[in-house]
Amino acid sequence: MLKAPALDPALIEAKVGSGYPAPFNASTAGRAKKMLTSALGLNQFGVNITELDPHSATSLRHWHSHEDEFIYVLDGEVTLVTGNGTQVLTKGMCAGFPAGVEDGHCIENRSAGPATILEVGSRDDRDEGNYPDVDLHCKANRYKHVQFIRKDGTPY
Prior knowledge:
It is globular, with a radius of gyration of 15 Å. It contains 1 helix and 13 strands; from the N terminus they run ββαβββββββββββ. A hairpin with a 4-residue loop joins strand 11 and strand 12 (about 135-140). It has one helix at about 35-40; strands at about 15, 30-35, 45-50, 65, 70-75, 75-80, 85-90, 95, 105-110, 115-120, 130, 135-140, 150. It is mostly beta strands. It has one domain (about 20-150): Jelly Rolls (Sandwich), CATH 2.60.120. Helix content is about 5%, strand content about 40%. Strands 1-2-3-10-5-8 form a 6-stranded antiparallel β-sheet. It starts with 14 loop residues before the first strand and ends in a 7-residue tail after the last strand.
């Protein structure tokens, strides 16, 4: 058994699905996320191992106001979806999303088998999540309190 500060990711309980309000949570129902840095008590950046069942997604297509994101495909095949279209990514491929770039993205598993990706992101309390395809917005301070609202500011 490993001792802190080391950690075996296999021992971390995965968070299944997302905190999106219905009906937006349906696309992430087959997502299982192990939050490695949270389990280690780190809070300045996030690293997750995310498993996607077939026909599942990491998120809705979104972009961040103040956070960079990076993904690396560990296993399987996923489809990167952006405003410019789609690209298939396989084991060993990666993608990055700079903060403030208004090109929503998500990762979908359109294959017949499971896929696993490594997600890395900065954590900034000023960050807001913007969802160009649906009436959804995530307010700042989401690491302390996640609050999804409609684009007109009304709560779900």
